[in-house]
Design brief:
about 120 residues; single chain; elongated; mainly alpha
Length: about 120
């Protein structure tokens, strides 16, 4: 009885292997024919038009967009960093020390005074 089971299992596995090989061959042949056929549509580089616009209105309608609001703290930090980039050496260290002790608003005032001098 175990001999019969072994024969059935071997027959089944050989059929599965043959089916997988046939499918792989068919896929490869289709890919090669698709690459070299002139009748098929050729796509250009990049994404197809409109693929990234789901759920958004078309930009050509002239809908007014408003800029995203920026928090006061973020705006203050941006002003601080902008002025800090203009400073070098000791002045920069002074402004950083003031920011650590008194805050960004005071550091911006000092940086403005140092940049004007």
């Amino acid at each position: 009885m175990s001999v019969e089971i072994n024969v059935l299992v071997q027959d089944f596995t050989s059929q599965i292997v043959a089916l997988i090989q046939a499918e792989a061959t068919e896929r490869a042949r289709a890919a090669i024919l698709g690459a070299f056929s002139e009748s098929g549509q050729k796509r250009g580089p990049g994404r197809p038009p409109g693929s990234g616009r789901r759920g958004r209105p078309p930009s050509g309608l002239g809908l007014a967009t408003r800029p995203r609001a920026v928090s006061d703290g973020r705006r203050l930090h941006g002003q601080y960093i902008g002025r800090l980039r203009s400073l070098k050496g000791r002045d920069r260290a002074r402004v950083q020390a003031v920011r650590n002790k008194k805050g960004a608003a005071e550091a911006i005032k000092l940086a403005d005074k140092l940049l004007r001098a």
